[in-house]
């Protein structure tokens, strides 16, 4: 039986594969979908785990619900990346009027619809619009405003380098009330994390939050959020109760706790 291995420098995570569902190269990346014994289906792009069925909610719920509950009334939402549909599924749990997903690689969307299914029908929801194009180009000179913009982008690679550029964040800051992005592992990729933090903070105020995602590099994952509004825990609890959303990982206590940072993470954003 085969094993999948993801390397983080000289360290690796090894997961036993039950079946290879797909393995091909799109115009942009190497796409693999496996069935595994421990984690269910697992999507891998360019050798890096993007999600597994067992823990994808840990990631998608924190990426989406922290910004969505930070906004008092999110109606129009933009997702950049996220072609697997997990973020779209979580956004549509809120009473939004419109959710636009802009994914560069149509093959990720097609494969996810056909063989993964974590979108739970989100791609067919009448409130959803899926555009297959470059999300960075899309936000440039966009006249429209969005209540929330969420960046569910890939790990660092040549074709998505601009997804962490100052210009991209500046364009987003002009059209969003609340902005959030995944920001990799501060432990495994501190330089990349710091660069994202610096680029965003050069155009808008930003806060870091973290959580545990077992199949991401060594488990600790980070996110960055900008919001003009700073709701209290009471506000978040009230919004959570009012919106009646069912989650697996996220709740208001986890939301508040995710902003408690260890000293070493604080030092990365302050000092390096
Ligand atoms: N959950 C993942 C993680 O952090 O490991 C990320 C999700 S993955 C599905 C991210 C998606 O972003 C990929 O499908 C990739 O094609 C897409 N992407 C990369 N660069 C992009 C860009 N410039 N515009 C839109 N989508 C992009």
TrEMBL record:
CDD domains, per database record: AdoMet_MTases (cd02440)
Catalytic activity: S-adenosyl 3-(methylsulfanyl)propylamine + putrescine = S-methyl-5'-thioadenosine + spermidine + H(+)
UniProt keywords, alphabetically: Polyamine biosynthesis, Spermidine biosynthesis, Transferase
InterPro entries, A to Z: PABS, PABS_CS, SAM-dependent_MTases_sf, Spermi_synthase, Spermidine_synt_N, Spermidine_synt_N_sf
EC assignment: 2.5.1.16
Active site, UniProt feature: 152 (proton acceptor)
Residues reported in the UniProt entry to bind S-methyl-5'-thioadenosine: 29, 103, 134-135
Molecular-function GO terms, alphabetical: spermidine synthase activity
PROSITE patterns listed in its UniProt record: PABS_1 (PS01330), PABS_2 (PS51006)
Domain PABS, first and last residues per copy: 1-228
Pathway(s) the chain acts in: Amine and polyamine biosynthesis; spermidine biosynthesis; spermidine from putrescine: step 1/1
Keyword Transferase assigned: yes
Keyword Acyltransferase: no
Highest taxon of source: Archaea
Family statement: Belongs to the spermidine/spermine synthase family.
NCBIfam families in UniProt: PRK00811.1, speE
Summary of subunit composition and partner proteins: Homodimer or homotetramer.
Protein name: Polyamine aminopropyltransferase
Source organism: Geoglobus acetivorans
Recorded name of the encoding gene: speE
């Amino acid at each position: 039986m085969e094993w999948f291995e993801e390397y983080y420098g000289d360290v690796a995570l090894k997961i036993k594969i039950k079946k290879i569902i797909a393995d091909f190269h799109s115009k942009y990346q190497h796409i693999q979908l496996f069935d595994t014994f421990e984690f269910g289906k697992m999507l891998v792009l360019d050798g890096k785990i993007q999600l597994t069925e067992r823990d994808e909610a840990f990631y998608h719920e924190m990426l989406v619900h922290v910004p969505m509950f930070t906004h008092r009334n999110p109606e129009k939402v933009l997702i950049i990346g996220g072609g697997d549909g997990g973020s779209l599924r979580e956004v549509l749990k809120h009473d939004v009027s419109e959710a636009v997903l802009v994914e560069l690689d149509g093959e990720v969307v097609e494969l996810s619809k056909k063989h993964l299914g974590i979108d739970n029908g989100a791609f067919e929801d009448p409130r959803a619009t899926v555009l297959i194009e470059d999300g960075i180009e899309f936000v440039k000179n966009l006249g429209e405003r969005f209540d929330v913009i969420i960046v569910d982008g890939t790990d660092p690679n040549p074709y998505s380098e601009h997804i962490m550029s100052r210009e991209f964040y500046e364009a987003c800051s002009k059209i969003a009330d609340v902005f959030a992005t995944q920001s990799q592992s501060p432990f495994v990729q501190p330089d990349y994390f710091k660069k994202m933090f610096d680029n965003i903070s050069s155009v808008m105020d930003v806060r870091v939050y973290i959580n545990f995602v077992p199949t991401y590099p060594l488990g600790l994952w980070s996110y960055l959020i900008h919001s003009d509004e700073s709701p209290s825990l009471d506000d978040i609890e009230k919004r959570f109760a009012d919106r009646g959303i069912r989650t697996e990982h996220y709740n208001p206590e986890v939301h508040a706790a995710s902003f408690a940072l260890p000293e070493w993470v604080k030092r990365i954003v302050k000092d390096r």
